[in-house]
Amino acid sequence: MAFKRVLIAEDSSVIQNLAKKILEFQNFEITSVKNGEQVLQLLEKESFDIILLDINMPVMDGMECARQVRKLADPAKAKTPIVAITGNARNYSPDEFKSAGFDDILIKPLNFDALVAKVREFTGGEE
């Protein structure tokens, strides 16, 4: 069975490493990057089943990155589910997340059960 591919964009190595370990334990294949620009560079060459996107990142933040993903020329990649990871969701309204192209939001501090559940929900991963 092919592993579902998860792209994590998060500038905190601690959160990145924890999320990676937890999702790998659930048999997801994880790629992690530090900012939105790296997400777009990767998407030129590869496809993912879901993108977990931190909102506050250097170079290109999560909001801008999500908008760019939605504009990709490849329709399959442009439709990749994107889940926001944010410590300050109150800075944006649910509509702003939606219009940027996010499918859902996870609030920090991350609840790892919720993380796994979300990734499964959007990738059709096995229980």
UniProtKB/TrEMBL annotation:
Keywords: Phosphoprotein, Two-component regulatory system. The keyword Acetylation does not apply. CDD domains: REC_hyHK_CKI1_RcsC-like (cd17546). Gene3D superfamilies: 3.40.50.2300. The modification 4-aspartylphosphate is found at D54. It comes from the Bacteria. Residues 5-123 form the Response regulatory domain. SUPFAM superfamilies: CheY-like (SSF52172). GO terms for biological process: phosphorelay signal transduction system. It holds the Pfam family Response_reg. InterPro entries: CheY-like_superfamily, Sig_transdc_resp-reg_receiver. This is Response regulator receiver domain-containing protein.
